[in-house]
Design brief:
Residues 66-98 are annotated as: Disordered. By secondary structure, the protein is of the alpha/beta class. Among the domains are: 220-318 and 427-495, Nucleotidyltransferase, domain 5 (2-Layer Sandwich); 321-422, no CATH class. The protein has helices at residues 9-40, 45-67, 179-190, 196-205, 212-238, 282-289, 302-307, 321-331, 336-354, 363-387, 395-405, 407-410, 424-429, 431-440, 446-464, 469-481, 489-495; strands at residues 153-155, 162-164, 242-249, 262-268, 271-277, 294-298, 315-319. Helix 15 (446-464) packs across helix 16. The longest helix is centred in the N-terminal third of the chain and has 32 residues, at 9-40.
Length: 496
């Protein structure tokens, strides 16, 4: 069978089942041969037991990657969790409302030759106010224009005064491309993830001949104007009592050695700021978070722990229950009963959070529920971790050790209602950076990393506040050109 050309879903399903059964037979044979080999080599029973457990774990993980579900969502069979109410039945797919689109009425009339009655041959007259109506969403192609600005000159008959009409505002003196053009390029690159070369090809199809260097010049100039607002955005995030932090790879092109640059993100409820730095060591962590006085929600990466060390450290760490949950999901195939118990308890923690309103309005209720409901669940999770017998080095052992190593950070939410259960909101804020990295392949220069960090901070903060990124960027640029303070996205959103 040629899998690369077969399109029948049923044939592919049967082939997958056969492959899975064959895979299980081969796995069983590998374990038997390994046991026989260890016995011939004189290995002791404990070594044999550990080796077989390790093989079973590896085989289970590979089977899960090949044939298992990719989602982290669990079924509803975990214990201590209230059942999820069923979704209402879908009533069909109707037309989606389009409140933002302008409405253009197009009246269709009969040709003169068709305005004849089919019964008597008389002339048909328009029936006032009567139409057959329908809707259609149409596409109006984008159009570039070469505007010639003619500034009228004025003079007095006395010859002592000449005045010229003011010029339109420009990105810089002598700029050939408009402010709206530059904002459009920046939005397509950092919001819609279109590389500059791709934009060049698209513009060429639309009649504009331009080079990618010219487009870069526009967004680099915008970045200079917006720099003060970017620094203010970073300060705003670091002024919040609880923030999320994470880092993801960001390649710097043009080097022979592998790129170690990373995009560091710090996230508040109403803003996100990025810094792209050469590495992910404690030195870079201090550049991003050094001196921060508050709680940082993060994963178990060791550099974050370095920030909270020492008697004078003002940074406290909260750790992510979603990461702990993933560790137990990894062990689920090999240890279904043990993991079912702890996954049910973790799900119970999330069920408690779902009962509270998000933000400061739900803090008092959240504090009470966490003390009365979540704390007993935490005690049961701790009891599970200390009493469950595990094979050293197994996936279940690793999951328990991972959880135990971050226990103080995992339980901080019990005493502070502002601390979330997980760092998922920070990971969501990184989606734009990750998609952009996939499309742009990183940056070509150090300046490119600075410009990318600035625009991603503005764009993702605007989206977080429910603003249109392009409209917000234009507003910010116009304020900068007028010499005014740049209003940050959360401030614009608060103004309505």
């Amino acid at each position: 069978m040629r899998f690369d050309t077969e399109n029948d879903p049923e044939v592919l399903r049967q082939a997958a089942l056969l492959l899975e059964r064959e895979n299980q037979k081969l796995a069983k044979k590998i374990i038997e041969l390994t046991a026989e080999l260890l016995a011939l080599k004189g290995g002791n029973p404990e070594q044999l037991k550990l080796r077989i457990a390790e093989l079973e774990q590896q085989i289970a993980q590979k089977n899960r990657l090949l044939f298992g579900e990719k989602s982290e969502r669990r079924g509803g069979d975990e214990q201590d969790v209230p059942p999820t109410p069923p979704k209402p039945p879908q009533k069909g797919h109707g037309p989606k409302a389009q409140p933002s689109l302008p409405i253009v009425e197009v009246v269709h009339e009969l040709d003169e030759a068709d305005k004849v009655c089919g019964s008597c041959g008389g002339a048909l007259e328009a029936w006032e106010g009567q139409f057959e109506e329908s809707e259609e969403i149409d596409f109006v192609p984008r159009r570039f224009e070469l505007k010639k600005h003619k500034r009228q000159k004025y003079r007095c008959r006395c010859g002592g005064c000449v005045e010229t009409a003011p010029a339109p505002m420009k990105l810089f003196e002598g700029a050939r491309y408009s402010i709206d053009f530059a904002v459009e390029v920046a939005t397509e690159k950092y919001c819609d993830h279109a590389p500059l070369e791709r934009q060049v090809r698209k513009m060429r199809r639309e009649g504009l001949l331009v080079e990618s260097q010219t487009l870069w010049d526009q967004i680099e100039r915008l970045a200079r104007l917006l720099s003060p607002g970017y620094e203010a955005l970073v300060r705003h995030v670091l002024s919040q009592p609880v923030i999320g932090a994470d880092e993801t790879r960001w390649p710097l092109l043009g080097k022979n050695e592998p790129s170690r640059w990373h995009a560091w993100s710090i996230v508040a409820p109403d803003a996100v700021a990025y810094r792209i730095l050469e590495g992910r060591s404690s030195a870079e962590a201090k550049q991003v978070l050094g001196g921060y006085e508050g709680v940082v929600m993060c994963d178990g990466y060791a550099v974050y722990k370095s920030l909270a060390k020492g008697e004078n450290a003002k940074t406290k760490l909260a750790h992510c229950w979603a990461h702990v949950r993933r560790e137990f999901i990894e062990a689920e195939k090999s240890y279904p009963e043990a993991t079912k118990a702890v996954l049910g308890l973790i799900r119970g923690l999330y069920a408690v959070e779902a009962e509270c309103e998000a933000g400061a309005a739900g803090d008092e209720k959240r504090r009470a529920l966490r003390e009365n409901v979540s704390r007993p669940i935490i005690d049961r999770i701790q009891e599970f971790a200390t009493t469950t017998a595990v094979v050293p080095g197994s996936s279940l052992d690793k999951a328990i050790q991972y959880m135990a190593g971050m226990w103080s950070g995992l339980t901080r939410f019990l005493v502070d209602p502002r601390v979330p259960l997980d760092n998922n909101h920070t990971e969501r804020a990184e989606r734009g950076v990750v998609v952009g990295r996939k499309n742009h392949y990183g940056s070509r220069s150090k300046r490119g990393t600075e410009v990318a960090a600035l625009f991603y901070s503005y764009v993702e903060s605007a989206k977080l506040c429910g603003l249109d990124p392009k409209a917000y960027l234009r507003r910010a640029v116009m304020a900068a050109l007028r010499g005014e303070r740049i209003a940050l996205p959360h401030e614009v959103a608060a103004q309505g």
